[in-house]
Amino acid sequence: MVNFMLYITAELENLTNFQPKGGDDDPNFTYYFKLKCENCGEVTDKETRVSLSEELPLVKKGTANLIQKCKFCKREGTVTCDPGWRLSAYS
Ligand SMILES: [Zn+2]
Questions:
Q1: Where in the chain are the domains?
Q2: 43: CA distance to ligand 1 center in Å?
Q3: How far is CA 67 from CA 26, 49, 50, 56, 57, in A?
Q4: Gap from CA of 39 to ligand 1 centroid (Å)
Q5: What are the tens digits of pLDDT across the range 25-46?
């Protein structure tokens, strides 16, 4: 398993905070990502939805927030979000 940290940058004017509506642990906030297959390198055509509220059971053990097969090589990949993630604004 590989862990990634999501960094977002933005130029803010007259704002002191930047986070998803409902807070950074909002289970109903949906993120959209373009995903790259670690096996063949294929990148998804469209953005894929990921949210904390969608939990899918894994075959072995536990859950994932997204389970998706690569359209090119058919390898299955999963995304699991850490609910402790934080989005911070830097000026
Ligand atoms: Zn692939």
A1: 54-84
A2: 8
A3: 20, 11, 10, 7, 9
A4: 5
A5: 888 889 898 999 999 999 999 9
